[in-house]
Each structure stands twice: as structure tokens, then as C-alpha cells.
Description:
Layout: E1 3-6, H1 10-27, E2 49-56, E3 60-68, H2 76-80, E4 95-103, H3 105-111, H4 132-151, E5 156-161, H5 163-171, E6 177-178, E7 183-184, E8 188-195, H6 196-206, H7 208-218
Parallel strand pairs: 4-5
Antiparallel strand pairs: 1-2, 2-3, 3-4, 5-8, 6-8, 7-8
Helix pairs in contact: 4-7, 6-7
Amino acid sequence: MFYVKRVKKQDELQKIFALRYQVYCLEKMFLDAKDYPEGVESDDYDESAIHLGAFASGDNIVGSLRLVRSTTMHFPIFDHCKVSQLPKGANSLEFAEISRLIISKKKRAMIRPPKQTIPPSIGAVRSDFTDFGISDLLMELFRVMFTYSKQRGIKYWLAAMEPSLMRLLQYHHFNFRQVGPATDYYGQVIPCIASLEEIEEQFSQQNREFFLEFAKHMTDPRIGIHEETMWPPKEFR
């Protein structure tokens, strides 16, 4: 069992940054571990991001992602990908980028035996996300993220996403579309975008039960704007 919540306390943020170091520096070797001598991975985008953590028993973190916001359309995706075909007329506060999506190796090992085959209905899905147990965790992260996004007027999600993860999310009615050529950015990724309005409509038509869970979560008094820090910054005009 696990639960997902927004992470703001410094000690819990450090757990997320340590998990990112474990995956990005030691397991995947996307980043040089020598650049992170304290065993945590963080960057300038973390300050403006909403961080979500998935916790198992004993408050052990098993997954995380962040939702990066910007007042100037400065998102990580633009540092690495060529992006086009964005919605006209939308301002930067209506966008947010999903990044640093991670599920711990321990969590993957607990759910999936090493020789388990890939479910044929999904196709060649990245091994991190093959199991339906992993999918449950992924869907809960996205459900909570959807709530925080809607409450803050975010209308579009950007992401640089592995093709297999993109297909898995589409399988679950989170329809991302490609907005630029694939590029090598921590592996082969596709720059993509999703409309929250379209996602909500898709769920209301295709997965009513999950849609009602969305609605229930939106009215949860424990999740609200009252816990937000000043955003956008006071100097924003």
C-alpha cells in the first residue's frame, strides 16, 4: 500500500532529492554522481515546483514527480527539446511541466518478479512501468497532480516523455500529443503536451469511476490553495 501527498517539509524534500540521486546518478547514470557529493539531486527548477511524493509504510518514499511552474515560459523542456504547436493565447501561468518522474527500484522489485513478461495489451512499455501495480502508483500520482493543477488554473501539462510511458498514459486516458521531434534527453524522449480539459472530458466518457475519484479528490478539504506559498511571485505583472 502507498499514499501520495504534496511534499513541502525540508526533511521530506530531501528524501525526494535522495531518491532522484539514486535513480538519475547511480542506477541510470544520466547525471554524474561526482557533481552531487551530498547524495541528493536538485536544480533551480525545484524552487518553483509542486513536489509530490508516494510513500509506503513507515514513510518510505517509493516514487515522486514535480510540477514545474514559471512566470516566463521557462521550463526544463525548452532547455533540451525543440517545441512547437503550443496553444495560442495561453499564458505561462496556464502551463506546468511534469518532470523528474521516478519510481524506486525497491518498489519495482517488490511488485514485479525479474522475469515477468510485459502485458501484451500495453506493448513495449518501459520496464519501470510494466506492472499494473506500478500503473496504480503512477495513476495516483497523476490524480493528485491533476487536482493541484486544476486548483491553480493550470490548463496544460508539458513533458519530455519516453515513448513507452506516453503510450501507457494514453492507455489510461491521459492523452499526451507530440509537439516536437524526439531527442536524446536522459534517453530518447518526445516533447509532448496534454490539455487538462480534454483529460477530464475523456475520463468522464471512458472511465466514469476514475472520473468520480477525480471529483472526490477535488473537494478534499486537506488539499487546497490555502497551503500554497505566494504564487505567482509578488513582482510578477
